[in-house]
Amino acid sequence: MIHIAVHDMTCGHCASRISKAVRETDAAARCDIDLAAKRVRIASAEPAAALVAAISEAGFTPALEKEVA
Questions:
Q1: Ranges of H-type helices in 1-69
Q2: Could you give the CA distance from residue 37 to residue 58 in angstroms, rounded to a whole number?
């Protein structure tokens, strides 16, 4: 499980854009977004760096918190 903080995620539209960016990187990824905590948890076979880059390219400032195997 990959945990990413996205402090500039402020609304449902932001959450949708992040979810879309993750799905475009890994269509099989499971993405759980906690808007109130401004955190994204992702279960994916892709490397964390690729998912962080995808969220960044979607216009956000992600910060990898931890990656649990």
A1: 12-25, 48-57
A2: 19
Q: Residue 67 corresponds to which tokens in the numbers above?
A: 């990656």
Cβ burial, residue 27 (10 Å; 0-12/13-18/19+): exposed
Three-state DSSP state, 65 = strand
pTM higher than 0.90: yes
Per-residue pLDDT tens over the stretch 16-61: 999 999 999 999 999 999 999 999 999 999 999 999 999 999 999 9
Candidates 3.30.1300.10, 1.20.1540.10, 3.30.70.100, 2.80.10.50; CATH matching 2-67: 3.30.70.100
Establish how many alpha carbons lie within 13 A of residue 28's alpha carbon, considering only the half-sphere containing its beta carbon. Answer: 3
Give dist(CA 28, CA 14) in Å, integer: 20
